Amino acid sequence: MGIVEKIQEIEREISRTQKNKATEYHLGLLKAKLAKYRQQLLEPASKGGAKGEGFDVLKSGDARVALTTMTVFEAEEQSEFALIVADFREVGFPSVGKSTFLSTVTNTESVAANYEFTTLTCIPGVIEYQGANIQLLDLPGIIEGASQGKGRGRQVISVAKTADLILMMLDATKGDVQRSLLETELESVGIRLNKPRPNLYFKRKNTGGIKFTQTTPLTHCNEKMIQTILHEYKIFNAEIVFREDSTVDEFIDVIQGNQVYLKCLYVYNKIDQLSLEEVDRLARLPHSVVISCEWNLNLDYMIQKIWEYLSLIRVYTKKPGNAPDLGPEDGIILRGGCTVEHCCHALHRTLASQFRYAIVWGTSTKFSPQRVGIHHVLDHEDVIQIVKK
Ligand SMILES: Nc1nc2c(ncn2[C@@H]2O[C@H](COP(=O)(O)OP(=O)(O)OP(=O)(O)O)[C@@H](O)[C@H]2O)c(=O)[nH]1
Ligand SMILES: [K+]
Ligand SMILES: [Mg+2]
């Protein structure tokens, strides 16, 4: 029996099994088995496996993702303004309008047509917004079974995993079925959308048996269940701390350790085809935006949302005795949550080592201006002056 069949068999058994106290352990075990097989399925395909021809953008795209990390900035000689490239990916069913969107909001043309799978490779474009260059990758549509290698599923999924944000584009006329099918596909390959990382400590050890601690009452798991699952993974020595009421699935995620937690915006396109009531309903769903590429409806709002979901911030620098330049092209783009240290690296590779203190004007400080240290976390539209040793 192949892995795909084994997966299907376990999925059938899970759906057949009634959920109650008596079946709890059995279900936990089945879930662990399922997670293991799914991981095997995603491991690099053996020799003859289809590797991404035309997906080589995938590699340079990945490198560009790394550009958003501060270490890359260290290697660059950019003194005044650093350019940041934030990546996000578009994922969706065929013919929902992904290519039309790319061609509308970027300078790149991606062929759009009314037949499915017009786009078979990965087409990159750039959205310029608030002085940031946001890379947009138009990917082929995902179909049901993509996680099992159908369509270009595997390649699309591996590109999607490297994104900072997934734009899940849906055909608003096709109902909610597309959304849940795509979610299931992405879930089954370890992509968790708009979910926080479980607050759960797990560490394998060489000796000492299973050390289990909980800092809060648990309603989904207990020690015996955890032992059972760990046995399935042949783990006999480990330290586990449950810091919140995590589920069995979350525990399995942490053992597997290969999940990607991504933000996702659901984009309902083609609202020109819907009644106002229906548009209104979709627009109120969580993490959702409604647009029409054809009628140019709501596209600006959507790009604003992308910016928000990427949590990028703009920070302005200022020299002593000078006013800061606050024009639309001034300042540097940084990740939300970044510190003065990250900012130093973005400005110049040696700046952090010469750092004495910084003076910050803006919402990140109690007083404005305020003297801060290198670990101070910056906010959008802060102004910073760095004082060197
Ligand atoms: N009514 C309407 N049609 C649209 C809209 N946006 C795109 N389309 C049409 O939908 C069809 C598919 O558009 P594409 O941009 O090729 O879709 P895609 O998602 O890139 O498709 P694949 O590359 O095949 O996966 C085309 O005929 C577009 O003209 C829209 O806002 N409203
Ligand atoms: K198409
Ligand atoms: Mg396309």
UniProtKB/TrEMBL annotation:
Domain TGS intervals: 311-388
Keyword GTP-binding: yes
Tagged with keyword Nucleotide-binding: yes
SUPFAM superfamilies per record: P-loop containing nucleoside triphosphate hydrolases (SSF52540), TGS-like (SSF81271)
Entry keywords, A to Z: GTP-binding, Nucleotide-binding
A family per Pfam: MMR_HSR1
InterPro entries reported in the protein's UniProt record: Beta-grasp_dom_sf, DRG, G_OBG, GTP-bd, GTP-binding_2, GTP1-OBG_CS, P-loop_NTPase, Small_GTP-bd
CDD domains given in the database record: DRG, TGS_DRG2
GO-annotated molecular function: GTP binding; GTPase activity
Domain OBG-type G, residue spans: 86-311
Top-level division of the source organism's lineage: Eukaryota
PANTHER family: DEVELOPMENTALLY-REGULATED GTP-BINDING PROTEIN 2
Annotated NCBIfam families: small_GTP
Protein known as: Developmentally-regulated GTP-binding protein 2
